[in-house]
Amino acid sequence: MNFKVVNESFQCRNCKAKVTPQKGSCRNHCPHCLYSMHVDQVYPGDRASNCKGMMKPIAVTQSGKKGWILLHECQKCRKTIRNKMAEDDNMILAAEISRNPL
User: How large is the average pLDDT for residues 93-101?
Assistant: First the structure.
């Protein structure tokens, strides 16, 4: 799999928070509301998606290698994408999401 490093500041389209780059990794979702935006098409960082829909966090799972994983679903095209959680993510909200069955 290809991977293009993109780690830049952005303003969350869902909660309007200003989001800073993640230290030591790439941030692709808001650490406050956990929403993302459908910007990648084929591989992480390609920014080739024409959809640009909001990606709602719908589940939280545990991966032995990567730790906690958010499952996002695009509210426009319904594509689902797995994303590694960051240390500064809203873990209270993540716990609430994890209680909702898929």
Answer: 89
For residue 6, what pLDDT is reported?
Answer: 62
Helix (H/G/I), strand (E/B), else coil: 91: helix
CA distance 64 to 90: 20
> CA angle, corner 41, sides to 37 and 46, nearest 5?
90
Query: Is the four-CA dihedral 37, 41, 44, 45 of positive or negative sign?
Result: negative
Q: What's the residue count for the chain?
A: 102
Residue in the block written with tokens 């991966």: 63
Per-residue pLDDT at 24: 67
Domain ranges for the chain: 10-98
